[in-house]
Amino acid sequence: MKSDKNTENSNVFYTVAMRGLVAFPKMVMHFDAARDKSVAAIERALKENARIFLVAQHEAYVDNPKASDLYKVGVVAEIRQVLKLPDNVMKVLVEGVYKANLLRLIDDGKCLKAEVKRTPTYSRAKVDAVESEALMRSVKDVFERYASFFPKMPKELFSSVMTEEDPIKLFENIVYNCNLNYRDKQTLLEETHIINMLSILFACLTSEVEILELENLINEQTQNSIDKGQKEFYLREQLRVIQEQLGEDEAEENFAIISKIMDLKIDEKSREKLLKEADKLGKLPPSSQEAFVIKNYLDTILDLPWGKYTKAKLSLDKAAAVLEKDHYGLKKVKERILEFLAVHILNPEIKGQIICLAGPPGVGKTSVAKSIAHAMGRKYARVSLGGVRDEADIRGHRKTYVGAMPGRVITAIQQAGSANPLILFDEIDKLCSDIKGDPSSAMLEVLDSEQNNAFRDHFIEVPFDLSKAVFITTANNVSAIPGPLLDRMEVIELPSYTAEEKFHIAKEHLIPKQLKEHGLKTSQLKIDDGAVNEVIQYYTREAGVRTLERCMASLCRKAAKKIAGGEAKRVTIKQKDVHNYLGIRKYLADLSSKSDQVGVVNGLAWTSVGGVLMPLEVLTLKGSGKIEVTGSLGDVMKESSKIAVSYVRSVAEKYGIDPEFNTKTDLHIHAPEGAVPKDGPSAGVTMTTALVSALSGIPVRSDVAMTGEITLHGKVLPIGGLREKTMAAYKAGIKTVIIPVDNKSDLEEVDDAVKENIQFIFAENLEQVLENALCKDKEGDK
Ligand code: ADP
Hints:
Oligomer: single chain
Mean pLDDT: 86
Radius of gyration: 41 Å
Strand order of the largest sheet: 16-17-15-14-18-21-22
Structural class: alpha/beta
Distance between the termini: 113 Å
Number of helices: 27
Shape: elongated
Low-confidence stretches: 1-9
Bound molecules: adenosine-5'-diphosphate
Number of strands: 22
Helix content: 40-55%
Strand content: 15-25%
């Protein structure tokens, strides 16, 4: 390369194509080089201690410029300093040396070089002193106006411009220090006669000042609310300004965005913020990361249903009909929902009514919520909260965060497409909180009618009015809902279904639905009653009907295959055929103790899938009084076992037990594995009965089941989940259930079928429990 610093006649230089920047001789400036070819050119020039040639591109967006993309005049410059930034970006400080014409561009694939010819910066033509003086005055005048828009402009710059008497120095002072459009600067670079240069500069500054004045005017006007005429004025001017800065296409796109912002039903403060963002977008190169972020942001905002409301059309009769049509049974639930809707009819503006549908999985919570939305004529959206542990899940990430999105609430609104939808917050009891912030406090804000008219999502930044939306939540376990959230909700319990209810739900809802989904006609597939009962009894064990629905879907699928394959025209599934379709029975009838045994008691537990019958076993072994507890009750069981042992010691003699048993006998207590019960202590009576039986050798009646917490003095305390527990007992064919006397009032909730078939014994103390549970003598005679 001949471009040695010392041989000024050399004329090939490493070259950097500049986007939106123009250098001048004697001007010191810095720029960032990011493109590989630019970085390579600078690196090679540095290595060879050579100057570089800086020339502007016509269009900033061209990535790989050819000769035709570059202006014909540039500047040969000295590299003063280079700073390497991450991602192979270089910050380069240069000082222009002389002006040069581009003769030939050489692209070797790695970097650009240019053959150039030096040209004088200023022509030697004579300057008319009067003309020059007049021009200088004009330029200074307009510069003064220009400076008034930049309060931060250095005072020295201002005063040196105003006092300058040399036309060239005046020109350089202004051009090198002011932020003029690069096309204007290029025109100035290409000119050599100082009088012409000053005239062009005067024109540029004048137009710049006009734009600035206009922008100011527009900003003032937007602050006072904008009426339609002003809006058009604003838009047209904005368009003109943008068009001057960008190409036509981008300007039009930006114009469309601004016009949409003007049409949004949104408060003026938010509109102003959005306009500012659009403005910023218009000024950024479209391929930049920041432009991408802002564009994505504005697109998301414009996609939200601001002020879009569906007309509520609510009549109680219709709502009742919808609920009745979609769901079998659930009498109480439907009544409570109709009450809720009645309030909405009388006072559509009512706020802060939030229903929580609580119950085990598959009992119809989601589907009831959908029916409510349908009955209220609202769009429906579901937000799953299970396992949400980060506040940002609810409230979104700031838009500058990589891959940022709005939170789940705003996303639901977007999906619903209306600002007054019914939003279902599923599994609100499964919200977790940890170091990443507490999502439940964000949920509080969503649900709180005092605050949610201006809900703030971190991503969308401007407030969104959620106050017209209806919220419904669901939970499996109400006790796991954070207290402050629970306080705001009205809990409606959906209980587990009896086998009869499941049968009706299957016949009237699940089977017709599955037939339709699988494209089958009722004439093509018949699942008879025996088969339905077989599935309920031996293929599912659940409080709700989810597995049942899946089994029905599986039957339909297999039948559809037969029919489509031409194997059969129509299929009938009877009880005896079920195993051909679904495989062998998955569950045995029940786990209950079938004969009166020593040390085995039917306990009743309440788990997240409903009630279960849980036989509890106690074995006595010769030893030194150790107690071993195994099975699914864990720590709570250990506590209860200590109370039980103490109580048994206090009544040992009455049942013929050696009062010293606690030093001579080891006890092993076992509860079979299964779902973990929600109320551990309720196994107290069961454990005591099993202990007394094991130690005394008196068998326990196998047709009796029990539940209840105990105190040291043998009192029986009330328990939860009576409905589910008694249902489990009923299903297992138990005849007598012992429950705490204080639970008597809860019998009202117990299913009628259960009440008809089971005799209840209300125990106040353990003596009454043992009286009814133990056989009268050691042979098992009752
Ligand atoms: P959850 O939300 O409580 O887990 P889903 O609403 O998802 O339960 O219910 C599971 C399936 O059972 C759905 O297809 C639903 O329509 C159906 N289902 C539940 N309960 C009933 C009912 N009482 N009548 C008709 N279908 C029901």
